[in-house]
Amino acid sequence: MSLGLRWVSLGIALAFGGFLLLFEVLPGLLLARVFWNEGQFSLASWQEATRPLYLRALRNSFELAFYSALQGAILGTLTAWALWSSAHPFVKRFTTGLSAVAANFAGPPLAFAFIVLLGGNGFFNLILKGLGLPTVDIYSKEGLYWVYLYFQWPLMTVLMLPAFGAIQREWLEAARSLGSSTWGFWWRVGLPVLLPSVLGSYVLLFANAFGAYATVYALTQGQRNLLPLQIGFQVGGDIGYNPVLASTLALMMALVLAASLVVYRLSRRWAARMEQV
Amino acid sequence: MSQLLRRALLLALGLYLFLPILASLAYSVATSWTALLPEGYTLKHWANLLENQRFWLALGRTALLSFSVVALSIFFLVPTLFVVRMYYPRVAGVLEFLTLWPFVFPGVILAVGLISLYSSPPLQLAQTPFLLIAAVTVISLPYAYRAVDNAFAAADIKTLAEAARSLGADDAKTLAWVILPTVLPGVLSGGVLAFSAAFGEFALTQLLIGTLWETLPVYQVQLARTDGNGSAAITVLSFLAAWGLGFWALSLRKDAKVSVI
């Protein structure tokens, strides 16, 4: 290989490094500037960001992410099991593709689609009303779970498929022929193999909901005490412009996400070990 | 019993994924809809939307943003992955780390960092489309990186390039006839994924530039306040774009494996 291609590529690679430094790494790292005030270490902005209003936002976001990920994890794991055990290859391929695509569909279009379905005069609510059942309020706290489930459920399905792939269907038959029950098989073989992946995928779903801004903004016009919305309000809002507070809240959020990433990486390592055995 | 549960689960997922979109489609062609089914059907809302200059401008900006992000991603990723895989395999870990970065610093956080960094000289880029393009490129990096990296990993570039050289090919020939054709499907798949991510991007757009440079999702939020039916039409369009692009990207890959991070 002569030198031309190598050096041109290296030049572009270095430019890429500079680009990432300017627009990815520095904007993240320099958030920590909030701890310096006129050259001195200061906790003033941290105290501002831990006022009850913002602690409640943190708590609300945590709760939303926790339960929305839980719902997605349960339904997604069951759906991955259904795909694993169902024989039809077309159904499997189609559902996998569909899930992979739907897992990335969020933001205003999704929010408005659910308003059409579950808003005050939404189609589904009209059916519920007609049947004399209680309707769903899409703008309520529970309403948000319905919207988030749209991407959480398929995301978990897609994430769990490879883990189920590590379990051979013949194992189940072998266990049965040796006198184990189906439940016994899943308890003693399935669960240990799947558990690391369930945990890792759950953490991804959690982070996915915790950092989500677009969908809930479009749904509520930002009128909800959640951490991402509070942050956006402090930089984009007309009234509450306070970039230092926004940076501090952003840092708080990044800490939770960094912790999720660590748990995710650990669970991946654990999963790799389980699949080797 | 378990057969029944299996079918019920798959059916429920299918309904859950399709019903909101079908309802939006129906709403975009409904005259009025207060009973179980729309009273009548009309193409009026679609006509209004398609005659609206603001819609076309928003769509144009979204297309410009998406194409710029794809161009920038491919321009950076292909030479970088080539040179890293070929000559500096030890740097691969750093690259991997940088593609994980948006996980900890998603759109909202990145927007805050960028605003406080670029609102004043020397680089006063805040509220320009350039900053938005850079930011969306960063956010969609994990998608594009994964696809392009898989293509390079599957191709064994090093052996290919050495073989080409030993047969007398120069740099240009090696690039044009050996390396690019091998990684092309993966690069294309990465480009399509980046395009799709940029097309639907909202958080960064709204916070970095907002209505000053209105893209389709930002326009939809504005439109929804006055025209629910028109907004439903945009939902249908966005859905078609996202699903079309998504399935296209999947079809470009040999394996059905999907990785998120």
TrEMBL record, chain A:
<dbReference type="InterPro" id="IPR035906">
    <property type="entry name" value="MetI-like_sf"/>
</dbReference>
<dbReference type="InterPro" id="IPR000515">
    <property type="entry name" value="MetI-like"/>
</dbReference>
<keyword id="KW-0472">Membrane</keyword>
<dbReference type="Pfam" id="PF00528">
    <property type="entry name" value="BPD_transp_1"/>
</dbReference>
<dbReference type="GO" id="GO:0005886">
    <property type="term" value="C:plasma membrane"/>
</dbReference>
<feature type="domain" description="ABC transmembrane type-1">
    <location>
        <begin position="58"/>
        <end position="263"/>
    </location>
</feature>
<keyword id="KW-1133">Transmembrane helix</keyword>
<keyword id="KW-0812">Transmembrane</keyword>
<protein>
    <submittedName>
        <fullName>Spermidine/putrescine transport system permease protein PotB</fullName>
    </submittedName>
</protein>
<feature type="transmembrane region" description="Helical">
    <location>
        <begin position="144"/>
        <end position="164"/>
    </location>
</feature>
<keyword id="KW-1003">Cell membrane</keyword>
<feature type="transmembrane region" description="Helical">
    <location>
        <begin position="244"/>
        <end position="264"/>
    </location>
</feature>
<feature type="transmembrane region" description="Helical">
    <location>
        <begin position="12"/>
        <end position="36"/>
    </location>
</feature>
<feature type="transmembrane region" description="Helical">
    <location>
        <begin position="96"/>
        <end position="124"/>
    </location>
</feature>
<comment type="similarity">
    <text>Belongs to the binding-protein-dependent transport system permease family. CysTW subfamily.</text>
</comment>
<keyword id="KW-0813">Transport</keyword>
<dbReference type="GO" id="GO:0055085">
    <property type="term" value="P:transmembrane transport"/>
</dbReference>
<feature type="transmembrane region" description="Helical">
    <location>
        <begin position="185"/>
        <end position="207"/>
    </location>
</feature>
<feature type="transmembrane region" description="Helical">
    <location>
        <begin position="64"/>
        <end position="84"/>
    </location>
</feature>
TrEMBL record, chain B:
<dbReference type="GO" id="GO:0005886">
    <property type="term" value="C:plasma membrane"/>
</dbReference>
<feature type="transmembrane region" description="Helical">
    <location>
        <begin position="100"/>
        <end position="119"/>
    </location>
</feature>
<feature type="transmembrane region" description="Helical">
    <location>
        <begin position="64"/>
        <end position="88"/>
    </location>
</feature>
<protein>
    <submittedName>
        <fullName>Putative 2-aminoethylphosphonate transport system permease protein PhnV</fullName>
    </submittedName>
</protein>
<feature type="transmembrane region" description="Helical">
    <location>
        <begin position="125"/>
        <end position="145"/>
    </location>
</feature>
<keyword id="KW-0812">Transmembrane</keyword>
<feature type="domain" description="ABC transmembrane type-1">
    <location>
        <begin position="59"/>
        <end position="249"/>
    </location>
</feature>
<dbReference type="InterPro" id="IPR000515">
    <property type="entry name" value="MetI-like"/>
</dbReference>
<dbReference type="InterPro" id="IPR035906">
    <property type="entry name" value="MetI-like_sf"/>
</dbReference>
<keyword id="KW-0997">Cell inner membrane</keyword>
<keyword id="KW-0813">Transport</keyword>
<keyword id="KW-1133">Transmembrane helix</keyword>
<keyword id="KW-1003">Cell membrane</keyword>
<keyword id="KW-0472">Membrane</keyword>
<feature type="transmembrane region" description="Helical">
    <location>
        <begin position="232"/>
        <end position="252"/>
    </location>
</feature>
<feature type="transmembrane region" description="Helical">
    <location>
        <begin position="175"/>
        <end position="199"/>
    </location>
</feature>
<dbReference type="GO" id="GO:0055085">
    <property type="term" value="P:transmembrane transport"/>
</dbReference>
